[in-house]
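TODO from last week: model TonB family protein.
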Amino acid sequence: MKFILPVLIAFSFAGSGNAEPRLAKSEKVLAAQDEAGRTMIIVGNKADWLAMIGSYMSRAVRIPTELRENGPWGDFMVKIKFMVNPDGEVSGAQIEESSGNPQVDAHALNAIRTLKLFPFTSDMGEEELAFALPINIKNDRPVTPAEAE
């Protein structure tokens, strides 16, 4: 089993809109569409695959509306460890370090468990990869119209 150094992802939910992370010009990726019209990103080698993980997860993992609207409010960090097989399937996800809030922990864990990552590139071999992923979640209280005045 190979171990990958932690990747840090910062999520900002309240007021962040739908801003999508942009790929750096140096990242060599291809985009294609599947039969359902969804855009698929295809990476060319292990370095590109690893570079894409943070960008992909930050787009794929969204805080539920209930938490965004009702809290908890504040800055949270939960560390999740998990395995990824050569087909990009996530398994064995578990909380390695709690955020201190069970709702935030449960959401982050569920989000990681349901992700489907990119299949490995040909230079990555057939062994599963282990990740330890600290996820920073910032959930600011929404500003009401009365507060905005």
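Done. Residues 72 and 101 are 8 Å apart (CA to CA).
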